[in-house]
Amino acid sequence: MNESNKPNVQELFLSHFSKELIEKVFENIAEGIMITDKYKKILSINAAFEFVTGYKLEEVQGEKPSILQSGVHDRIFYIDMWNQLERDGIWQGEIWNRRKTGELYPEWLTIIEIKDKFGEVTNYCGIFTDLSERKIVEDELEKRALHDSLTEVCNRFAFIERMKVLLEMSAKKVQPIQHAVLFMDLDRFKQVNDTLGHAIGDQLLVEVSKRVNSLLKNKDILARFGGDEFVITLANIQHPREAAKFAEQVIRAFEIPIKIHDQDIYVSTSMGISIYPEDGETTEQLLNRADRAMSYSKENGRNCFSFYFEELQTDSNRLLLLDSELRKAIENREFTLAYQPKINTVTNDIVGIEALVRWNSEKLGFVSPAEFIEHAEESGLIIPLSEIIFDLACEGNQKLVAAGYPRIPIAINVSSIHFQQQSFLESVQTILERNNTSAQCFEIEVTERTVMNSAQETVSKLVKLKQLGFKLSIDDFGTGYSSLSYLVRFPLDVLKIDRSFIQHICSLDDKQAIVDAIIQMAHRLQMKVVAEGVETSQQVELLKSMGCDFIQGYYYSRPLPMEELIDFIHFWEVEHQGRI
Ligand code: C2E
Ligand code: CA
Ligand code: CA
């Protein structure tokens, strides 16, 4: 059969289907259809064409299809298209066109030449499907597979893929090549999430990834591994020093607070660094070691970075042990409290005592509360632990009353995680009832950071505690960036100036000026002031001269078991007031 004997599409259609049927299909088919004459001038379009392009028949009749041209493809593209059409009678492909609104969209287009029985072109027919929605879905799917949907940086999967390529290439290189893998974890992110809500937590993560991203170079990789964990690869570094410099930049970048809904949020981060190839030749090993170095940074005060070193292996074993031992200790109530007096500098009265938890673990020895409280906060163990501490403080109070000192309140440190619990007030009341004691015998210390979050709820909780009869202190003041005027809204009795200010008060003028200002302002707000961590008589004298009301610290007494504390009080009263 020669070319001209091939049945013509039109004829084929007309011979099989009625004109009405063809018209019905033409109008109702989901594909856009456009028919031109042999000069490529538009004769007819269907409803789907109108729908996709936005043009009505009157607007395009007599025009050339180039009315839809997007400008995306160059001249060569169209020349090739028409050449192929002339050669094969058909062209198919993806093409970008422009709607009447000006919007560009991709379509899958088939153009067919329609010839008469002499082989002469009479018409062209274009049939197309709008791909824009499919494209959006495809792009989205691709993005989701490789990107973290919240921050749009790489996800774990994409990170591992890119590392594979990077490490394979590096292994082939003759000259030695180094990369740094940084594991980064935000400090106290759980607290932000718990107190300010997940929506703000999410926004914070987006801002964090933007700040880190702005510090990166072309080949570097930033990925979010989920939660508040980020991983960064610094490719082709000359020296590990570069990684240290980068980590310092990250720390500095977070010194400026992140503003979300007019609220300044301070974040800091702890980082761990491993170096390829010294610390590992596989992604897994590098990640593992950077992660361990990160945990080490957390244990060493946060807001810092550490390089991996061999001894960390044993450290991570300790964390595991700490976790399991702490669980057992809570089960068996293996804790005690140590009590430290607070002294009125003018009258020499013992105005209160602070209860500090102590844990002497069979396997781990004495563990500092700073270490295990933090772990308890991160693992949720703080709630049962906090209840044990309250119970112990009630026992302590009974001993104090029995020894003849019913009016010395015991201050209990309350973790912000416990404080933020919906059931906090209830649980405290239950404990008081269970121990048959009253709130008047206690003081509650909440940190400045605790009250900085979700102010309204915090205010009403503090007011209720106050109504119950607790005295309220704000702990570690000066470390949380809140201004004193912010504190007016809280019903606080006492402000405790953080030890970090007291430490250098005799040698650093600026610390002295700050402490002086805090005392003046606190007095104006009708609050009493306690200086924490006072160790020397010079500090006592200076603080007295500034009008500081109460002093707590090793200078007077270390934290003591209740029995020893009672002896101390006894001795103190004899010494200072001649009372027995
Ligand atoms: P904090 O509430 O600021 O407690 C004061 C810390 O300073 C205590 O450390 C105390 O022993 C120590 N200290 C007191 N005077 C001096 C001094 O003159 N010099 C020095 N260098 N240190 C002094 P400790 O007992 O190790 O507690 C550390 C932190 O652990 C506490 O800081 C508090 O945040 C937390 N913590 C302790 N006990 C509890 C508790 O029962 N519940 C909760 N939620 N946290 C607790
Ligand atoms: Ca305290
Ligand atoms: Ca404190």
UniProtKB/TrEMBL annotation:
Residues 91-143 form the PAC domain. PROSITE patterns: EAL, GGDEF, PAC, PAS. InterPro entries: Biofilm_reg_signaling, EAL_dom, EAL_sf, GGDEF_dom, Nucleotide_cyclase, PAC, PAS, PAS-assoc_C. Residues 18-63 form the PAS domain. SUPFAM superfamilies: EAL domain-like, Nucleotide cyclase, PYP-like sensor domain (PAS domain). It comes from the Bacteria. CDD domains: EAL, GGDEF, PAS. Residues 177-310 form the GGDEF domain. Pfam families: EAL (PF00563), GGDEF (PF00990), PAS_9 (PF13426). Residues 319-573 form the EAL domain. This is EAL domain-containing protein. It comes from Solibacillus faecavium.
